[in-house]
């Protein structure tokens, strides 16, 4: 472990409303400044749910946090933006327009983390102080030994290093545009995340959309919040924001999911060489649990 800088929070409240991807309901999120050492947590009907792997529920299409019978779904893009821009401590108040009193979902916006990053940039960051008015060091987790998880031909491996490097590969052989693609990057600054990762949108295979809708998912999904690829026709709603946008979005998701490793306002993303291939939210969560068990 190494001290990197002081813990931060947002300078003032952020409020945004948008439609949820899976439920289709409108949700309003208010992000409030919080004390140093508190970390990030959700406030749903006055129930406080920490953004921690201890409360993560296994779900393949999104990341869900659950506590005492209440759940907050599709948290990965928001948490990715907070981790990527350095918002270490905050209270995330969330409410929905639907009738479900036990579950709520973070808005999807355009399918990326860009709107969250822009909102954070607008209010700015400030050093977080504890209840005694003192700042706290932000500690970054360094690996001392390799860590890996796998399921079938999906794998995530991380190796000790002096900086964070992520290489992420995807392979959907039924779609030529998504067959065996890779993106690699080094994470040096928050501006790199904001410019190179945050704008990357989620993607889908058009022929699988109706199956998901039949299962009660993606009721709020549209061409406005996802990049759609067809098996026969390729990219349906061009242009891409970058040549590697699908892979970059996987990195975005990974950062959001691995932020659940953060403890007491410190960094969640480990300083390591990380290689992921054909991962998803469930494997990301398994990787974080493995990190937690070896730290």
Question: Which properties best describe this structure?
Answer:
295 residues, alpha+beta, 6 helices, 21 strands, 5-stranded mixed sheet, globular
Q: Averaged pLDDT, please?
A: 93
Show unreliable segments. Answer: none
Radius of gyration from the CA trace? Answer: 18 Å
Per the principal axes of the C-alpha atoms, what is the gross shape?
Answer: globular
Could you tell me how far the N terminus lies from the C terminus, measured between alpha carbons in angstroms?
10 Å
Alpha-beta classification:
alpha+beta
The total beta strand count reads: 21
- Order of helical and strand elements: EEEEEEEEEHEEHEEEEEEHEHEEHEH
Strand content: 25-35%
Q: How many strands, which pairing sense, and closed or not: the largest β-sheet? A: 5 strands, mixed
How many alpha or pi helices? 6
Helix content: 10-25%
User: Reading side by side through the largest sheet, how are the strands ordered?
Assistant: 3-4-10-5-6
Structure in words:
It is a single chain. The longest helix has 14 residues. β5 and β6 form a beta hairpin. α1 crosses α2, α1 packs across α5 and α5 crosses α6. This protein is 22% helix and 34% strand. The mean pLDDT is 93. The strands form 6 sheets. The chain has a 5-stranded mixed sheet with strand order 3-4-10-5-6. The protein has a 5-stranded mixed sheet with strand order 14-15-21-16-17, with helices on one face. A 4-stranded mixed sheet has the order 7-8-9-11, with no helix packed on it. The chain is globular, with a radius of gyration of 18 Å. It contains 6 helices and 21 strands. With 295 residues, it is an alpha+beta fold. The N and C termini lie close together (10 Å).
């Amino acid at each position: 472990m190494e001290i990197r800088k002081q813990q931060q929070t947002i300078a003032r409240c952020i409020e945004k409303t948008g439609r949820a991807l899976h439920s289709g309901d409108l949700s309003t999120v208010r992000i409030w400044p919080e004390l140093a050492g508190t970390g990030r947590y959700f406030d749903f009907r006055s129930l406080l749910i920490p953004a921690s792997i201890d409360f993560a529920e296994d779900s393949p299409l999104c990341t869900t946090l659950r506590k005492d019978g209440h759940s907050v779904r599709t948290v990965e893009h928001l948490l990715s933006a907070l981790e990527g821009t350095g918002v270490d401590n905050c209270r995330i108040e969330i409410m929905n327009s639907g009738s479900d009193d036990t579950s709520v979902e973070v808005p999807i916006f355009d399918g990326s983390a860009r709107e969250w990053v822009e909102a954070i940039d607008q209010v700015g960051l400030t050093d977080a102080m504890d209840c005694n008015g003192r700042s706290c060091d932000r500690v970054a987790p360094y690996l001392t030994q390799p860590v890996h998880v796998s399921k079938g031909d999906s794998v995530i491996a991380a190796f000790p290093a002096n900086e964070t490097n992520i290489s992420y590969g995807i392979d959907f052989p039924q779609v030529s545009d998504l067959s065996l693609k890779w993106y690699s990057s080094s994470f040096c600054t928050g501006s790199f995340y904001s410019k190179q990762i945050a704008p990357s949108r989620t993607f889908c295979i058009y022929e699988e959309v109706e199956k998901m809708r039949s299962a009660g998912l993606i009721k709020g999904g549209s061409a406005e919040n996802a990049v759609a690829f067809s098996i026969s026709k390729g990219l349906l709603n061009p242009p891409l924001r970058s040549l590697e946008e699908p892979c970059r979005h996987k990195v975005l998701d990974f950062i959001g999911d691995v932020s659940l490793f953060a403890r007491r306002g410190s960094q969640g993303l480990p300083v390591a060489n990380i290689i992921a291939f054909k991962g998803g939210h469930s494997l990301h969560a398994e990787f974080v649990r493995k990190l937690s068990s070896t730290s």
